[in-house]
């Protein structure tokens, strides 16, 4: 059995009798009370024929008011098997909770349904409902390739830059031509111990990869010395998934298929000896290990709780996360399943608890927001000492392949993890990445907002929201505006940020702010139309000199062209009929050219994207009878358009719809 590939189907589970020591009634229908699920680590399946008959009768009669308290009580008693065998009742509870207007509670219940469904519910409908209620889905994130292409056009400006993080392969001194994974970094960031398959042994006359532990030392500035084997711990069996204690004197790891193991792979512990070698290797015992696969150990910040992954019988999916506590004598108590909020019908592996904060990171193939095969997620410890809902740490780390087996330094500066290419887990490499905002343990303060049309008050739905950390430079993945024009980010409080909202339907919004608690911005901006005028762009009589009052609106046009490189601009200068017609044409041309020069120079726009034409008094808006009429005709018009790739006919576009998109 390999440390790397634990995923096997669980065995059929048996029904067990009702446990007497369960919570009979939740208090005021609080979701935290329901989500305790005390039977998960006591019985496999909760079944009460009398209670089920009542539920079925009330459900058939559609008596939701009478059904709700009984159903809440029944679901609170669920064992592990109920989540896959009785998913309908979980869905029905979510449905009635939604009917009662408790949308946040319903959202979390629907999420539970989606993570454990097997039969009895329409998955696509529930998923669509959940995404709508939660206001988030994988498609909210801007694809990074597209985002990097877009920001290349803004290299001359300081306001908007691509994420600063670089996904860095740790190099040939660390990685080999075989799989390398499972890193654990020391408290002082000077040492990493990891797993590698670079060595091989002969079994049945054929060489096969052997999982061993290796150690690397930091050379500073992100460089690492050559990887060396931990000879005193490596055997002909498979060793891997190490975890170092804070003081560096204890190492937890997995060892597979030896006479000392109870199952395929077990968790072991070793102590650092006086001569700087590792010894006193011990199996953690039957309270922790099972007759199945047990691996991926990680300690809590206080080091009195051990988290690990196992595919033992009785879990929710192909592999689950478990935990065990130390008693007063330092012995590990019987391990418990981490429950249905963290675990899913898929696989959960690689638990890691931040060395300073009660934040759990883990890899999963069964969560809802997923960019590839296995993604990294994080969850926070709640007041009831249970782990809350998990969230994907975002596409700056998670890609189309698999990301798992990771560690974070105590300063939350870098993430070290194993990464595969898409659909191939045969050759993992170790990577480092500056910890992005989505993975930061302190990124819990919500920034929300909306963007609407200042003319119609309708939401803009096609736009990109970018947030830039101006103090620490932590990379933040950009997101699209949602269907209702809203957006949401989780950021670190008391930091200064720059927010930019850009799109091809509106003028860009840009603001600098200091985040102080949960914050909401409701912004409006002007839509882009085929022909526009700005009140600020008014020249003095017989002058083509730009005034400072014009700069704000001209910058908006320049920024739009930078954000949307496939658009072009036509500037049309107009005068009133007073004076010499030829002189008016020359004056209007100089005004249009002055604006063109400003946008080209200060906006960094190439000349071939801007056209400037002076029409003089040839295209009046109104017949001039008063001075007000002459003021209306003295104007500069801006036309922003996207040329037709098959050949653009300006007159035809104007005749068809008047808008050049």
TrEMBL record:
Keywords: Cell outer membrane, Membrane. Its main location: membrane. The keyword Ion transport does not apply. SUPFAM superfamilies: DPP6 N-terminal domain-like, OmpA-like. InterPro entries: 6-blade_b-propeller_TolB-like (IPR011042), Bact_OuterMem_StrucFunc (IPR050330), OMP_bac (IPR006664), OmpA-like (IPR006665), OMPA-like_CS (IPR006690), OmpA-like_sf (IPR036737), WD40 (IPR011659). It comes from the Bacteria. Residues 526-644 form the OmpA-like domain. This is Cell envelope biogenesis protein OmpA.
């Amino acid at each position: 059995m390999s440390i790397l590939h634990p995923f096997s189907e669980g065995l059929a589970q048996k029904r067990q009798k009702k446990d007497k020591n369960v919570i009979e009634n939740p208090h005021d229908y609080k979701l935290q009370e329901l989500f305790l699920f005390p039977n998960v680590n006591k019985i496999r399946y909760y079944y009460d024929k009398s209670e089920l008959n009542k539920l079925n009768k009330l459900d058939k009669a559609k008596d939701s008011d009478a059904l709700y308290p009984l159903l809440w009580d029944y679901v609170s008693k669920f064992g592990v098997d109920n989540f896959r065998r009785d998913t309908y009742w979980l869905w029905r509870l979510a449905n009635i909770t939604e009917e009662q207007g408790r949308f946040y509670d319903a959202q979390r219940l629907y999420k539970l349904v989606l993570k454990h469904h097997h039969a009895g519910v329409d998955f696509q409908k529930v998923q669509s409902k959940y995404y709508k209620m939660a206001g988030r889905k994988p498609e909210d994130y801007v694809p990074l390739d597209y985002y990097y292409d877009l920001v290349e056009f803004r290299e001359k400006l300081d306001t908007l830059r691509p994420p600063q993080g670089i996904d860095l392969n740790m190099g040939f001194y660390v990685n080999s031509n075989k799989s390398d994974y499972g890193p654990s970094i020391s408290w002082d960031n000077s040492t990493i111990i990891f797993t590698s398959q670079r060595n091989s042994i002969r079994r049945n006359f054929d060489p096969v990869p052997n999982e061993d532990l290796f150690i690397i030392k930091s050379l500073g500035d992100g460089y690492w010395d050559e990887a060396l084997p931990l000879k005193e711990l490596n055997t002909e069996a498979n060793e891997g998934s190490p975890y170092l204690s804070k003081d560096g004197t204890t190492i937890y790891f997995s060892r597979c298929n030896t006479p000392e193991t109870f199952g395929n792979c077990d968790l072991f512990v070793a102590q650092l000896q006086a001569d700087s070698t590792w010894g006193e290797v011990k199996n953690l015992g039957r309270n922790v290990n099972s007759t199945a696969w047990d691996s991926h150990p990680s300690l809590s910040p206080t080091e009195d709780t051990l988290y690990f992954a196992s595919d033992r019988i009785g879990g929710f999916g192909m592999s689950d996360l478990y935990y065990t506590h130390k008693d007063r004598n330092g012995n590990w108590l019987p391990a418990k399943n981490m429950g249905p909020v963290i675990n899913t019908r898929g696989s959960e592996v690689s638990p890691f608890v931040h060395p300073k904060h009660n934040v759990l990171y883990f890899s999963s193939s069964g969560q809802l927001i997923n960019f590839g095969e296995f993604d990294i997620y994080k969850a926070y410890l709640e007041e009831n000492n249970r782990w809350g809902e998990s969230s994907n740490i975002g596409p700056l780390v998670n890609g189309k392949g698999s990301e798992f087996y990771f560690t974070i330094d105590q300063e939350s500066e870098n993430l070290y993890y194993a990464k595969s290419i898409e659909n191939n887990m045969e050759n993992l490499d170790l990577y480092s990445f500056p910890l992005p905002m989505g993975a930061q343990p302190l990124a819990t303060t919500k920034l929300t907002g909306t963007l609407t049309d200042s003319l119609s008050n309708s939401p803009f739905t096609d736009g990109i929201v970018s947030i830039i950390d101006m103090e620490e430079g932590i990379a933040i993945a950009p997101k699209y505006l949602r269907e209702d024009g809203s957006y949401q980010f989780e950021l670190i409080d008391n930091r200064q940020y720059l927010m930019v909202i850009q799109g091809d339907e509106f003028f860009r919004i840009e603001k600098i702010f200091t985040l102080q608690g949960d914050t909401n911005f409701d912004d409006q901006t002007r839509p882009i139309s085929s022909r526009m005028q700005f009140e600020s762009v008014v020249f003095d009589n017989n002058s083509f000199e730009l005034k400072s009052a014009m700069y704000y609106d001209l910058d908006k046009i320049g920024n739009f062209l930078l954000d949307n490189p496939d658009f072009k601009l036509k500037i049309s200068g107009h005068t009133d009929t007073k004076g010499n017609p030829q002189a008016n044409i020359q004056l209007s041309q100089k005004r249009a050219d002055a604006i063109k020069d400003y946008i080209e120079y200060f906006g960094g726009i190439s000349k071939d994207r801007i056209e400037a034409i002076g029409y003089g008094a040839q295209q009046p808006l109104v017949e001039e009878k008063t001075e007000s009429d002459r003021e209306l005709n003295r104007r500069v018009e801006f036309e922003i358009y996207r040329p037709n790739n098959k050949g653009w006919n300006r007159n035809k576009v104007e005749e068809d719809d008047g808008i050049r998109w």
